[in-house]
């Protein structure tokens, strides 16, 4: 699947919809990240639906308590299903309507990660009892590196009531005394001054991030709790998993259709209906019609309307994040695409065309890094059996960048096995495979053929 978007931008946006926890072996509940619970409080119901990578669904009960948010009912059952007897990281990717994608990491957490998580639970406790007010700021990199922070009017008005010269920001790692800059002339403004940069540096803020500022609702208080969402997972592992659910296209100014990534369309063919629901970052929903054609998958009905709504008159990247049931999060990048990206996208559309007409068979392999760097590739039994019919000694892998002649290693003794041998490493190197990645192998269904089309979501 092709991704022409600015990866940093997309990952930063995706971080807003995710958090992780560590399963604690002696706890009958799952702790929910407080910042996440506060940010999405209006959106959450008491019943959450969790869906894992295999499509299994689980229902758990959320206590809807912002003092100590937890998953209670159904948690013990979840532990038994995944055989969680130790400390394990669980990643939650929020897709809306109290539904989540989850990834349960089977390996035991390192002691340092466990200590960090337990310390974080303690650090996130409220500073005071009673009602609280929350103010939200989505920081950009410039604000993280600035010497001051402009505050929204409501937060500024709250602090003005106390006539404070300083406030104390209580973060997870450090408490910092910060100067308040409250001005009325020539224009009313409220800022956190000296101390802000120290606070950001202490907490490692350097990219876009959501901050929740929690204060006393009863009276204006200069003690301010600051929280951001916590992620204890291995980021590379999660991003690799997330890439299985996303693709991007470039809006072509002269086309009345949107091209869908072929690898994505084939991988999720059984799951995708003819009607797709798209939801942008503001919560706006759009319905488009998918032609469900694996030869040339496209979005047809509703595409012209979408172009008008977002005023797409040029070449723009559109990111699609799949959340299941033919529903997608979309991000439309307003800046015009660079000529090189446009040329690459057009070339990719051409390169992804089928090698031959007629019915096709598809075989799927989810490569791990070891397979990407190996001298051979073990094939699943069904793919091996297909190739055995032709009694080939070699096959030709047609990738987006290069076609490579590869030796076939078909053995029956001492154990039946099918492998792609010499040529495999050259193919991986030519396409820059080095991490986990989905590959789609497309072949002729009518008769065994040594010409194999390889489709993937890697960047080209």
Automatic annotation (TrEMBL):
SMART domains: B3 (SM01019). One of its GO terms (molecular function) is DNA binding. Residues 135-228, 363-452 form the TF-B3 domain. Signal peptide: none annotated. It is found in: Nucleus. Keywords: DNA-binding, Nucleus, Repeat, Transcription, Transcription regulation. It comes from the Eukaryota. One of its GO terms (cellular component) is nucleus. InterPro entries: B3_DNA-bd, DNA-bd_pseudobarrel_sf, REM_fam. This is TF-B3 domain-containing protein. It comes from Vigna unguiculata (Cowpea).
